[in-house]
Amino acid sequence: MRWYIKPLVFTLCLVPLAWLGWLWWDGGLGANPIEANNRYLGGWSLRFLLFALAVTPLRELLGQPALVKFRRMIGLFAFFYITLHWTSYIVFDQFFDWIEIWKDITKRWYITVGMFAFLILIPLAATSTKGMIKRLGSARWNKLHRLVYLAGIAGVFHFYMIIKADFREPIVYGTILAVLLGYRVVLTVKRKRQRGQRA
Question: pTM score, two decimals?
Answer without folding.
Answer: 0.90
